[in-house]
Design goal:
By secondary structure, the protein is mainly α. It is built from 7 helices and 2 strands. Strands 1-2 form a two-stranded antiparallel sheet. The longest helix has 44 residues.
């Protein structure tokens, strides 16, 4: 009967794996996007959990046999997966916030496009940077990095073991601060040029009061903004390429607490 007990234990472990992997998959960038249909997400979660089962079964803690304690473990595993996926989503939040700052500076803040990931309206340059960030994220293997970080999470937090969820709030604020810093780094060139253009327009308005600065200011902001974006785009792509490994590092720091 040992094989039957082992099969029951692995069955219980498998659904805990599905809970953490499913929570992570639903919140992670690209993987949890609306572009990926549910008919693909569900089998992918099931197969990924099954692939991880042999590597995590040996280090798993003792599981409760009662229904309610086991259901509590399932909910906790799902919450941990959602927390890891949220930290992964921070990378796209940083890109979107940077684009929104650029939109405000260039006068595009009232022009919205549809976010391809979640179907919500976002500003024009925010959509451009978000699409560019998604492409760069996939090119540098960001999806593989996140899945690898998820697999390593079972070493830091075994199934049924102690969970770091009580200490995630400080790490979440750290991740948000890092995202805002990354957003400022992406928008810094255009924000700097925009300030210079606005200063020049202000001086021009004082020197020539009869000139309609509002009518000429917006086209000037757009022109200089697009020119600066073309010059700064290679550097911005390089910054976007570093966001994926930094996100995996944020996930590792969360689990180390």
């Amino acid at each position: 009967m040992d094989w039957l007990a082992g099969a029951q234990h692995n069955f219980a472990l498998y659904w805990l794996l599905v809970a953490r992997v499913g929570g992570f998959w639903s919140a992670a960038p690209v993987l949890g996007s609306q572009i990926v249909p549910t008919a693909v997400k569900a089998p992918a979660v099931a197969v990924l959990a099954l692939a991880m089962l042999p590597s995590v079964s040996g280090g798993a803690a003792a599981l409760p046999t009662a229904i309610l304690p086991y259901a509590g473990l399932v909910v906790r595993e799902m919450a941990l997966g959602l927390a890891l996926g949220f930290l992964g989503q921070v990378v796209l939040a940083a890109v979107e916030v940077g684009g929104e700052l650029i939109d405000v500076q260039m006068g595009f803040s009232v022009v919205n496009v549809i976010d391809p990931s979640f179907g919500s309206p976002i500003p024009l340059m925010g959509g451009f940077l978000l699409t560019t960030g998604l492409v760069v994220f996939l090119l540098v293997g960001g999806d593989h990095m996140l899945i690898s970080a998820l697999a390593l999470s079972y070493r830091a937090v075994p199934l049924g073991g102690a969970s770091p969820l009580l200490s995630t709030s400080a790490q979440a604020f750290t991740a948000l601060a890092w995202a805002f810093e990354a957003a400022l780094g992406l928008a810094a060139p255009i924000l700097g040029v925009g300030m210079i253009v606005n200063l020049g327009l202000g001086l021009l308005g004082r020197a020539a009061p009869q000139l309609n600065v509002l009518a000429t200011g917006l086209p000037a902001q757009i022109l200089f903004g697009i020119a600066t974006l073309m010059v700064a785009l290679p550097g911005m792509v390089a910054v976007l390429g570093q966001l994926a490994p930094q996100t995996a590092q944020q996930m590792s720091q969360l689990l180390a607490r």
